[in-house]
Amino acid sequence: MTSTPNDLSSPPGNGAYAVHPVTWRSLVNRISSAGNLGWSLGALAISALLSAPLIAIAILALESSGDTWPHLIETVLPSAVARTLLLMAGVGAITLVIGAGTAWLVTMYRFPLSGWLEWMLLLPLAVPTYIIAFCYLELFDYAGSIQTGLRDLFGWQNARQYWFPDIRSLWGAILVMSFVLYPYVYLTARASFLQQSVCVLEVSRTLGRSAWGCLWEVALPLARPALVAGMSLALMECLNDIGAVEFLGVNTLTVSVYTTWLDRGSLAGAAQIACVMLLFVMCLLWAERTARSRQRFHHTTGKYRHLPEERLAGWSGVAALIACAAPVVIGFALPISVLVGSALENYESALAGAFWRNAGHSLLLAVGAACLAVTLAIVLAYARRATRSKLVHGATGLAAVGYAVPGTVLAIGILVPLAAFDNAVDAFLRSSLGISTGLLLSGSVFALIFAYTARFMAVSLGPIDASFKKTSRNLDAASRTLGVGLGGTLFRVHLPILAPAIGAAALLVFVDSMKELPASLLLRPFNFDTLATHVYTLASLDQFEEAALAALTIVVIGLAPIILMHRAIALARPGIKSSSA
Q1: Of the four, 5, 134, 290, 325, which is 20 to 30 A from 58 by CA?
Q2: Contact in structure between 136 and 129 (CB atoms under 8 Å)
Q3: How far apart (Å, rounded) are the C-alpha atoms in residues 103 and 126?
Q4: Backbone CA torsion sign across 146, 149, 153, 155
């Protein structure tokens, strides 16, 4: 038998090469020859650990769920899939219009308060979708302040005497979530507009195109990969949400996973629905990668200058101001006013309750997840830098896929291997020592920290890996010639340089962990609440006023990354000095 000419693992004989089976020893030799063995194996082990939940979901979905799966196919899945698709389509369309439109206005025009609105348009990112939904229920529901005020004003006695749009509906969910998630599109669109060539835009103007003509015929086609990337992030968050859709009465796939697991007691059925959700995620990732791979642009000049900004005056300036201020008011200012008012009225009872204990739990989990995620990200990024192995490079990319996986899906994938480990340890100690250990890892703080780490590894790995790539490899070579090993080079050379990136990565993971709800609901220990689950529990009991302080705390903490994001966008265009930000 002969091999293809690409197999160079054996000496030639008669013009052909003998095929050698891939063994564990040969695989280790390939990895070791491509770089440092210890760092390579460490990166592979971390990647396997972080991708284990997805493998567990696939295995669990293959198990029999009895009569649950046929029942789900017949009664649950068709409506859940339809509502999920409609929700994602509506949110995608509205976030695209708001995000791209406001990004173009603040980038290309100057009008009243435009300098402030550049960063204020990011503020809704600080508010989780479930908190926004709760706030709008307080305002627009039948028992909310607006309908109550209308009934008092006009003397109406019940809802049959007047018409009012129902916030607990699919369209209510689309509008509420769109005004929270549009900053994902705004971020990527604005960064793309800032980096587009001034020459291309000026040429289009000299050919008779107006500013809006430049947008439709030049800027938007050039920004299509960025727009698709931002919209994909918004849709992934939409798919991950459980609090907003449940309280607004929209039974999506995420809610179906939750109810199938907890209400019907079928973990296998929940895993099967989770696989359907993973198909949605794969489609979004495919769309994003396709948009990026088919369009690539580069500048043909090394000279950069500010984009030409047209000043809008009169009614044009007022219209631009309203168009950019409305998303901020709807997505941030109005909900915050509800939170502040409720928090001031009920802060004494809130502080006297479980607020401090739940805040401590959230702080413990967020700090633990940030530390673990940053540590693992450093190992992954440094292994990628230190080795030439394609296997290691691919594995480090696989480790970051958890960010695209909804929290409910990830929770199922984490629970299965942890429960199997707990049961194996318990069975072994029962048979050998007659001791029952019970559940060691399932439903523990460790499970939550691991879930947060797997979910937000991409958030941590991105800044750290980008910082490594900006560091010259001559530093590594100089360190090695001085007799310092890879580990010493990391600690003595790279970590001091990486300090800002490590701080930014830790902050982002910390904030995201404080806001995470789906995984926290499903994996938390008994009688263990975070601020997010505390808000969700009280809101589900129609006691949102008592949860307002906890919700406001989450929002205030979420404001921290806004400063980092605004600075990153302001410095996005090459050639702009930091003083101009």
Answers
A1: 290
A2: no
A3: 18
A4: positive
Task: List C-alpha distances in Å: 416 to 52, 57, 409, 522.
Answer: 10, 8, 11, 12
Q: Which of 464, 491, 466, 489 is nearest to 479 (CA)?
A: 489
CB atoms under 10 Å from CB of 148, counted, come to 12
Residue with tokens 């091999």: 3
- Which residue would you say has higher pLDDT here, 243 or 26? 243
In three-state secondary structure terms, 128 is coil
The SS3 call for residue 290 is helix
Residue 53 near residue 403, CB atoms below 8 Å: no
Q: Which of 579, 560, 561, 559 is nearest to 571 (CA)?
A: 579
End-to-end Cα spacing for the chain: 65
Q: Give per-residue pLDDT as tens, 167-206.
A: 899 999 999 999 999 998 898 888 777 766 555 565 565 6
Model confidence over 238-281: pLDDT tens digits? 888 888 888 888 888 888 888 887 777 777 788 888 888 888 88
Spatial CA neighbour of 563 closest among 105, 126, 66, 5: 126
3-state secondary structure of 295: coil
CA distances from 118 to 230, 318, 441 (A): 17, 16, 45
Closest CA to 443 of 370, 366, 528: 528
DSSP 400: G
Q: How many CB atoms lie within 10 A of CB 466?
A: 12
Instruction: Look at phi and psi of residue 2 and say left if phi exceeds 0, alpha if psi is from -120 to 50, else beta.
Output: beta
Residue type, 509: V
Q: What is residue 160's DSSP assignment?
A: G
Q: Please, which pLDDT band fits residue 395 given cuts at 50, 70 and 90?
A: confident
What DSSP state is assigned to residue 308?
A: P
User: Which has more confidence, 303 or 69?
Assistant: 69
Query: Can you tell me whether residue 110 is helix, strand or coil?
Result: strand
Number of other residues whose CB lies within 10 A of the CB of residue 280? 20
Whether the Cβ atoms of residue 490 and residue 509 lie closer than 8 Å to each other? no
DSSP code, position 311: E
Contact 453, 369 (CB under 8 A): yes
Distance of CA 153 to the CA centre of its chain: 44
3-state secondary structure of 16: strand
In 387-444, which residue ranges form alpha helices assigned H by DSSP?
390-399, 407-433
Q: Is the pLDDT of residue 393 over 60?
A: yes
Compute φ and ψ for 63, nearest 5 degrees: -75, 160
3-state secondary structure of 477: helix
Q: Is the pLDDT of residue 457 over 90?
A: no
The structure tokens 């705004």 sit at: 186
In degrees and rounded to multiples of 5, residue 16 shows phi and psi of -135, 170
Q: Are 250 and 80 in contact (CB under 8 A)?
A: no
In this structure, the number of other CB atoms found within 10 A of the CB of residue 490 comes to 20
Instruction: Supply 33's token pair.
Output: 């020859």
Measured CA to CA in angstroms, residue 236 lies from 105, 401, 453 at distances of 26, 12, 17
pLDDT tens digits for 86-134? Answer: 999 999 999 999 999 998 888 878 888 888 898 899 899 888 888 998 8
